[in-house]
Amino acid sequence: MQNEEAIPERMTPDFCLYMYNAKIHPPSYWTRFTSDKTVKDWNKGQPPCTLVDIDKNSNTFTVIKGLVEGTWEADIQGIGRDADGLDGLQYGGLKITRIQRVENLILYEQYATRRQVMFLASGKAGIYPKLSDVPDMKGGSSHIKELLNNEWANQLYNEVNEEYFFTGPRRTE
């Protein structure tokens, strides 16, 4: 049996250094590339990317649907390059019928490696302040955290100001 290192208390420099040194595993909610193996182990001989349909009856589907509906702004619908050809269709809302997750080992490893560097910096300099507490911070943190249940909120690392974001068109005025 392996001697597993105790995980330090969250929001401490010791936790940040622990996370900096941790092996990178896929997120626990991935289903094709499970978190029982490291990303490097999965990358050996596996196609690195797959699309996974999210079950309509799952917590994941419910949370993502709620996030999309909670951040939908009808007044900017139809703006942006991805809206080409939609002008005449007179859409007035969203109907979410399918959600797919991209499980991309290469992109996730790049993201997680960069996050580890941020953990190192936070562990050395002190825990980053909340974005909403930084003076003159343009924008601050998003309101997406307010739409999350505890399970999803707890997957984020506040030590490095990790957030969920959606991208979309810029508002033109």
Structure description:
The protein has helices spanning 13-21, 39-43, 59-71, 105-125, 150-153, and strands spanning 49-53, 100-104. With 173 residues, it is mainly alpha-helical. The chain has one domain (13-158). The model has no long low-confidence stretch (mean pLDDT 83).
What tags apply to this protein structure?
single chain, 173 residues, mainly alpha, two-stranded antiparallel ribbon, 5 helices, 30% helix
Break the fold down into its secondary structure elements and pairings.
Blueprint: H1 13-21, H2 39-43, E1 49-53, H3 59-71, E2 100-104, H4 105-125, H5 150-153
Antiparallel strand pairs: 1-2
Helix pairs in contact: 1-4
**Strand order, sheet with most strands:** 1-2
CA gyration radius, whole angstroms: 19 Å
Percent helix: 25-40%
**Tell me, what's the shape?**
globular
Q: Termini separation (Å)?
A: 62 Å
Class by SSE composition: mainly alpha
Uncertain residue segments? none
Estimate the mean pLDDT confidence. Answer: 83
Q: How many strands appear in the DSSP assignment?
A: 2
Overall domain count:
1
Q: Note the total helix count.
A: 5
Order of helices and strands: HHEHEHH
Oligomer: single chain
Largest sheet: 2 strands, antiparallel
Short summary:
This protein has 173 residues and is mainly alpha-helical. It has five helices and two strands; from the N terminus they run H-H-E-H-E-H-H.
